Amino acid sequence: MGCPRCDTAVALKKPPQERLLKVALLGNPNTGKTSLINALARSALKVGNWPGTTVERLEARFLHGGREIVLVDLPGAYSLFPTTPEEVITRDELLKDPPDVLLVVLDAGNLERSLPLALEATELGLPMVVALNLVDEAREKGYALEPRRLEAALGVPVVPTVASRGEGTMALLQALLRPRTPVPAVRYPPAVERAIQALEKKITHPAARFIATALLAGEELPGFKAAREKAAELQKALEAIGVDPFLEISGARYARARELFEEALLGHNPRPTLTEKLDRFVLHPVLGPVLFLLGMLLVFRFTFLLSAPWVDFIGEAQAVLAGWIAALPLPALLGSFLADALVAGVGTVLAFTPVLFFLYLAMGFLEASGFLARSAFIADRLMALAGLPGRAFIPMVLGFGCNVPAIYATRTLESFADRLRTGLAIPFMACSARLPVFTLFAAVFFPKNAATVVFALYLIGLLIGVLTAWLLGRVLGAQASSGAMELPPYRWPPLRVLWMQAKVRTMNFVEGAGGPILIAMVLIWALLHLPPGPIENSLYARVATTLSPLFAPLGFSDWRVVGALIPGFIAKEVVVGALGVSFLGAEPSAALGLLAGAGQLLSAFLTALKETLGALLGLFGAPQLFAASTAPSGLQAALGRVLSPAAAFGYLVFVLLYTPCVATLAAIRQEFGSRWAAISVAYQLTVAYLVALLAYSAFPR
Amino acid sequence: MTARLLKALNSPRTLDQLAAELGVSPEAVALMLRQLEARGYVGPAYDQSPACGTACSACSLKRLCPAAGQATPSIRAWRLTKKGEAALKLGP
After folding, report:
1. Which residue in A231, A473, A516, B63 could disulfide with A478, CB within 3.0 to 4.6 Å?
2. pTM score, whole prediction
């Protein structure tokens, strides 16, 4: 007999009460899992992504009863027989890295629909606890439920909770320390049950019963080769006697879910809920669209009014850094590289972060509160013209503010085809960065019809975007979305979680898109500054001169006008600046002392704070649609000499439709892959060229 | 339960009609339809009519279709696909 103290495995193994207890939360979307984690953990929330995906992963660690507990929020799922990428992640995570305890979160107000997932969970062979959440909403809907009956039927602790108010969380924490492994709660028809049991013998995994049912039903599961071969044999045998295994297995689960629901239900006295009362206005055929547009305007204003002071602050910080660099005894070219390539590159990346952060806050609120689903419902018919679901309208509208967060907002769409079609349509929406170019040119060439010309450009962008989505749908053979639309009840989301989600999503942009933007900035700097000397001799001038004949059919061939389109690829804000530099010459950054710069930064920070407060107060004020142009009159005169009104209109259409900025491109690459990013650039350039040609040719002279 | 739903879809049905026929909540029916649609047993009723949205007067579903006469049907009516019909015939 060996010495127990000499057995390393025993010696190294911590007593169970000291080990980390991993609890995974499984539940339908909108069952309040995030609120439950927030209520249970109270602190130390961590938001990230599931490996290799953009699906969010919420995690929280805390101590309870002397145990360190880690709560992991699995992506929302209706079934472990998946129909969405999120459900695939959830199923795979449960099979590959099973938790110590499975916390199944049921929606008490929608119990019948929540139960099939709980029944599937009983087949995973894991210790389990059930949180019967949202019991307040169930009461409001008139349901009287008896959790103990559910507990008896499932054989695991069932704890009623209202996560948003923290009710039942202490009892739930106690239950998590005393979970029970359920006996599988569904009995299948005899022939199917025999096949499942035969298959289980081929599987060595704690979730053997679940895996056997999945393979027999024809679900795709990685691994389990021998069992899959056996499952194919059994499937054929069942089909020969008139049994479709998938239908029998899912049918038995739904039937058992109905039985359990009836067992747990003491009575139902339906009465109109607050959600139903509000929906009478929000989903009203006339009032609904008005409220929806007002809501979108508010999101738009919240995002851009609150982010503008911080974008300005980042610009000021850039200027201070450039000033400090100018004060250093460095060779002119190195100083220029540091100030105009590196600082400007990082500044360009950071300048997007306030916009993204505030937009994510607003979008997170809309999504978690239930308003997003309703906006989608209202816009559904309009978007159906492009074969897109109503939800696609929101990213498209956001594109008028900034294309980058709009591309990320396509994540709210369920299918990849819908996300891609919307994502490739968004770059045609005239973002706010294009407005300075429009207003500068409109003031010079169309002084009497400036507003009409700018409005026409917005419409052209929208039209091309919708056409692109429709065309891509035809090319991909995508089906119009047809699933039943779910309208969750209105809820007040946990603001702390919204804040953290916004932070993580913004950081994702910096990590994913920051590198490409920086590289592009360095390339443009090299074009402008090499070889050293006047801009007329630079690579930039040479490339622009080479490209000029290509644009002659569009009415503009001056190298300075064509050249401005090159840095415009980085960001449309730079087009006006590039025109200014090539027509009027560049102004070098003035040297700045350390203290003077720090003072400037502090003052800019305080101004940003003050303006943010002012923006909050002005959120409900009248919108200011057109920003004043800051273009120098010298540039306007110079442009007037080299372009005709028709050529200027062609130029504006080209600026509207060609690749909006490198950040949008990086966002497309991050969301849809390099191949689609390359296709989108080629497509945008082609469309921009052809439509600009048409605009120039058809312009009344 | 699923077999009953397929039988009910012998002729096109909306979600609420199916819920009433099966005696279950519309949310539970939506869940079943979601899984059956993803596996090719059922599909939206209007997909099978090439004239849908353009020639409602000739459409056999117009009585059922809340969007009849509109340019784009947003109807959520369901019917069996070929696979669904075959599964129904397969029954013991």
Report:
1. A473
2. 0.70
